[in-house]
């Protein structure tokens, strides 16, 4: 059937098109500009409807501030964070005071549930439905577009990789005698490093404490991972550690601007932190790739020396499963590097910061060391059962560090409930450890550094159920044993040999710390002298 098109221009100059059929029945449509306005109106109404939906909370979702289009509750959280001096954990704790221990938020595109007390945190960490890890650009960009590694992967992929790494790290000493030897060796290096500094100056040395432990902590892990020991002078490593500290101070555990508002990656790559995130990850990746390439040159498949070798062996094996790849090996190294060094050295950093402010703790610790070990030899991990007070300092150091931050986020794998509330699939669920590790109802005086809280009436170690700084359940920390051994021996060895005081004429350091993925004690100094 033939259709012709009639076009005419009306008095206002607008063009109008009508179609006529051969039967000459004219269907005169709306003028073109009306149609255009109608389309615009429909589009606006549709967008309005979508924005309206954006503000609707799922039924029985955990309570929290109102959701606005696009931003969700982000502006409210940002304001509260500003009011709380920039600390996200404090802003969330304040929200929990207003709405209850389980807070429902929407930050940009991310639906989040934050657990802020012991019962909800325990429920979240033990329920299989919450064993996922978040998805999205933030969690994928770090490994160049595909989720890899151990920290932020889930389901079959993660189960297989976690099992492999744990099994083989054990072969290289993880949790065994070889690990103890490595930790003891690094504690000795640390003491010698301090001695060199202290003996070089009359009256002791003023030492920057916040980053005094990073190299030794990393060495204990890296020897098992890649048979590598770094020196204090290694400039490449120093640069990398500074970059990581910068990165960790600029992102939060629950994401960052460009992950919550992904369009910012394109319109404001610098201001949204995207560019810096990519640059730092690129540098870490290149550093690790260089180490891996060096490793390959000396690799002998019949004599694996460390985890890298066992993994390379697996890559050549015909039984290799799809989850194994060279980029996954690099991602594992990156995760271990990030999870392993920053956390332990910052726990030590906070521990020594508080000990500077509470000399009675140092005195009690030194008395125990003198009684059990004496001064003729360095402490070792066999002394641990006889040194409950130093062990209690370890628990307390980790408490004051993790009490300022969140767990690694989890994700609901399916629609489920938490604390009686509805949590839809793919919601990010995170624990604010401040709600357990700094809860006045649980600890009485959580802001006081008091290792005795971990000792019972017989002076034996007592750890309450609500002490969960290493997580719980299937995703629990893989490095807890190594971390606690490092903190124990580094603390015992330093207290055995040195006294630490606030440098005369300076203000006592502040304990507020610097917020970030892992909180940092910030830069502070101690006057370190040989013990008499
Ligand atoms: C004081 C030191 C440390 C603290 C407080 C700490 C804390 C944590 C926490 C809270 C989690 C998350 C648990 C969860 O999501 O439910 C975690 C996971 C993890 N940690 Fe640690 N950690 C420390 C040291 C280490 C060390 C030394 C290593 C390396 C050997 C390590 C490797 C990991 C890994 C690989 C995961 C991910 C586990 C998984 O998702 O399966 N951590 N850690």
TrEMBL record:
InterPro entries: Cyt_P450, Cyt_P450_CS, Cyt_P450_E_grp-I, Cyt_P450_sf, Cytochrome_P450_fam2. The lineage of its organism: Eukaryota, Metazoa, Ecdysozoa, Arthropoda, Hexapoda. It comes from Apolygus lucorum (Small green plant bug). It comes from the Eukaryota. Its cofactor is heme. Belongs to the cytochrome P450 family. The keyword Iron-sulfur does not apply. Keywords: Heme, Iron, Membrane, Metal-binding, Monooxygenase, Oxidoreductase, Transmembrane, Transmembrane helix. Heme binds at residue 477. The keyword Oxidoreductase applies. It holds the Pfam family p450. GO terms for cellular component: cytoplasm. This is Cytochrome P450. GO terms for molecular function: heme binding; iron ion binding; oxidoreductase activity, acting on paired donors, with incorporation or reduction of molecular oxygen, reduced flavin or flavoprotein as one donor, and incorporation of one atom of oxygen; steroid hydroxylase activity.
């Amino acid at each position: 059937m033939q259709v012709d098109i009639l076009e005419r221009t009306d008095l206002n100059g607008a063009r109008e098109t009508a179609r006529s059929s051969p039967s000459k029945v004219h269907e005169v449509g709306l003028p073109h500009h009306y149609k255009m306005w109608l389309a615009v109106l429909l589009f606006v109404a549709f967008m309005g409807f979508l924005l309206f939906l954006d503000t609707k909370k799922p039924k029985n979702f955990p309570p929290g501030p109102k959701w606005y289009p696009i931003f969700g509750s982000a502006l409210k959280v940002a304001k509260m964070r500003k009011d709380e001096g920039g600390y996200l954990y404090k802003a969330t704790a304040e929200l929990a005071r207003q709405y209850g221990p389980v807070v429902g938020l929407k930050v940009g595109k991310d639906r989040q549930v934050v657990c802020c007390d012991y019962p909800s945190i325990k429920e979240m960490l033990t329920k299989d439905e919450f064993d996922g890890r978040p998805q999205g650009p933030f969690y994928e960009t770090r490994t160049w577009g595909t989720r890899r590694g151990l920290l932020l992967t889930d389901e079959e992929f993660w189960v297989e990789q976690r099992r492999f790494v744990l099994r083989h790290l054990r072969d290289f000493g993880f949790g065994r005698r070889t690990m103890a030897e490595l930790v003891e060796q690094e504690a000795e290096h640390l003491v010698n490093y301090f001695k060199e500094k202290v003996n070089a100056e009359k009256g002791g040395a003023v030492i920057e404490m916040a980053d005094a432990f990073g190299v030794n902590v990393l060495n204990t892990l890296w020897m098992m991972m890649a048979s590598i020991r770094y020196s204090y002078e290694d400039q490449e490593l120093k640069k990398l550690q500074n970059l990581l500290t910068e990165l960790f101070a600029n992102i939060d555990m629950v994401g960052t601007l460009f992950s919550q508002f992904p369009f910012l990656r394109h319109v404001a790559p610098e201001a949204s932190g995207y560019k810096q995130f990519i640059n730092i990850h690129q540098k870490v990746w290149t550093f690790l790739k260089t180490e891996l390439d060096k490793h390959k040159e000396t690799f002998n498949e019949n004599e694996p020396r460390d985890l890298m070798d066992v993994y390379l062996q697996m890559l050549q094996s015909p039984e290799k499963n799809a989850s194994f790849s060279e980029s996954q090996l690099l991602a594992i190294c990156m995760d271990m590097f990030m999870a392993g060094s920053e956390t332990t050295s910052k726990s030590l950093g906070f521990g020594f910061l508080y000990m500077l402010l509470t000399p009675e703790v140092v005195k009690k610790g030194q008395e125990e060391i003198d009684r059990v070990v004496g001064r003729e030899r360095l402490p070792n991990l066999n002394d641990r059962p006889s040194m409950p007070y130093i062990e209690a300092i370890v628990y307390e150091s980790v408490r004051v560090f993790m009490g300022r931050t969140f767990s690694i986020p989890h994700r609901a794998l399916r629609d489920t409930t938490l604390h009686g509330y509805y949590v839809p699939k793919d919601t990010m669920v995170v624990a604010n450890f401040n709600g357990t590790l700094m809860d006045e109802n649980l600890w009485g005086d959580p802001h006081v550094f008091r290792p005795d809280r971990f000792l019972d009436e017989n002076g034996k170690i007592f750890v309450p159920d609500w002490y969960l700084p290493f997580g719980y359940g299937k995703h629990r920390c893989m490095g807890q044993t190594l971390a606690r051994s490092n903190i124990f021996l580094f603390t015992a060895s330093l207290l055995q040999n040195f006294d630490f005081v606030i440098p005369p004429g300076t203000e006592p350091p502040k304990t507020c710390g610097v917020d970030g993925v892992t909180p940092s004690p910030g830069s502070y100094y101690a006057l370190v002298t040989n013990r008499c």
